[in-house]
Amino acid sequence: MGVGVTAAYASSAYSAYGYYGPINGKNYRNQAYVSAPSYIQGRTSAESLSGTVGGGWMGVLPRLYKGTALCKQTSDYIYNGSPAVGFDAPTSGDCGHGTYHSYGATAAWNGSGYNYVYTFTSPNLTW
Q1: pLDDT confidence of residue 3
Q2: pTM of the model
């Protein structure tokens, strides 16, 4: 899954929202983005469109790419630790100056395990 990638010269670049569900009676959306506060990071967000869900119901796997190569990702999915409507998580560190994009994945609790859904690809961000 992905969308066309264009260059962006700003401090953040966001993918389109991806919508999925119902999973265990809940509908969700996800998004990948790159952000450059003082260094560049890939971020992935998950949000319930059905109100608050329980702790552990949503997971995110943020991934940061430099060019076409995976640069950074978290070691595993990060899950919401308490009831929430949505949350996001970043990668840590970067791979030096260059052109980056984010393409992550999310997890949604289906009652006995997780359904995994990729995000769309964010636009490029040059840092």
Answers
A1: 43
A2: 0.89
